């Protein structure tokens, strides 16, 4: 089976010796370099101190998609946040984000940010967490250029975009996490909006297509709470354990097509050149080495999770929590991770 436009399949110990898309370096890497330099150039000296950290900073590997705030309800992520930027600075920050995402991926990212406004309306000023579309942060690690290693991050609630570059080439595009609360807007002017529909629709179609024998292998015991299948943030390793579920070579042609479409929904978040390279590597994954597993129920409104395992990557998804209006199973977490580690680093 050849899975087109699928996920990363080439993790390495230490920095990989090649770009994600091979040699010569693709257009994305120089675009990122130029955009990062331009962004830093718009900042004041104080902002630059906050936004530009050393490449070896521990903060580079400390990524979070959950809300982060102090007891005094102040933001405490590293970097410079959007709401403190001038219009020109914010435009430069978003230009940097655009270099790491496709047009559709960028639309998803900005929609995720906008959902904070819906949460603010639903939860009110007395909500436990501050909900603010301006609480998204940009950080550049190291010096953007072609001489050595550097990286950048765009992060806030339900989004963490992380890239690592070395010698003018993209060497890691993970971790890349998108979430949505609500997964589907149930009321108001934006009723019916689904920020990340494809990662649910293709997965549900695949689950519902499984035969009883396939389902016995694919379906896993539902963990207590979300801890058993939750995406591990603040870590350069996913630590998902051994592969579980049904192997891709045990799926029929239509099911394999659904699995390929599901993987494509993740890689299509990336720029085309990087997504194409990821697809090529995933296509080389032996079908018997790729597994699909899930928990719960694929029926709308019922909690469920799924994973796609391969030797060098894992896709993780959860929809087990109610949204802020108490609609059940309407709160998505999704990510892809490199194995054995993200950030082009060893364990």
TrEMBL record:
Mark the transmembrane ranges: none
Extract the InterPro entries matched here: DUF3500
**Which keywords are on file for this protein?**
Signal
Keyword presence, Signal: yes
Q: Which residues form the signal peptide?
A: 1-19
Instruction: Tell me what this protein is called.
Output: DUF3500 domain-containing protein
């Amino acid at each position: 089976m050849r899975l087109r436009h699928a996920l990363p399949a080439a993790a390495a110990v230490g920095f990989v010796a090649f770009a994600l898309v091979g040699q010569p370096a693709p257009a994305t890497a120089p675009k990122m370099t130029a955009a990062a330099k331009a962004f830093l150039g718009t900042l004041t000296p104080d902002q630059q101190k906050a936004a530009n950290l050393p490449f070896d900073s521990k903060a580079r590997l400390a990524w979070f998609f959950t809300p982060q705030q102090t007891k005094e309800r102040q933001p405490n992520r590293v970097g410079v946040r959007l709401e403190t930027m001038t219009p020109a600075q914010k435009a430069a920050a978003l230009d940097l984000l655009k270099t790491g995402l496709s047009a559709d991926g960028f639309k998803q990212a900005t929609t995720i940010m906008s959902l904070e406004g819906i949460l603010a309306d639903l939860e009110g000023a007395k909500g436990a967490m501050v909900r603010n579309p301006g609480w998204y942060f940009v950080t550049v690690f190291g010096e953007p250029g072609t001489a050595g290693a550097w990286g950048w991050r765009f992060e806030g609630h339900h989004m963490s975009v992380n890239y690592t570059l070395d010698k003018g080439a993209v060497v890691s595009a993970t971790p890349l996490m998108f979430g949505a609360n609500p997964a589907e807007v149930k009321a108001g002017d934006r009723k019916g909006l689904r920020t990340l529909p494809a990662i649910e629709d293709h997965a549900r179609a695949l689950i519902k297509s499984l035969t009883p024998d396939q389902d016995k292998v694919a379906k896993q015991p539902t963990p207590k709470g979300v801890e058993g299948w939750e995406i591990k943030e603040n870590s350069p390793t996913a630590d998902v354990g051994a592969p579980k579920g049904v192997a891709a070579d045990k799926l029929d042609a239509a099911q394999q097509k659904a699995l390929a479409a599901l993987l494509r929904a993740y890689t299509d978040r990336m720029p085309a050149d990087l997504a194409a390279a990821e697809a090529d590597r995933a296509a080389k994954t032996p079908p018997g080495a790729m597994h699909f597993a899930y928990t719960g129920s694929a029926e709308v409104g019922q909690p469920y999770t799924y994973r796609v395992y391969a030797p060098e990557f894992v896709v993780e998804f959860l929809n087990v929590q109610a949204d802020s209006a108490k609609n059940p199973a309407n709160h998505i977490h999704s990510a892809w991770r490199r194995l054995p580690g993200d950030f082009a680093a060893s364990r």
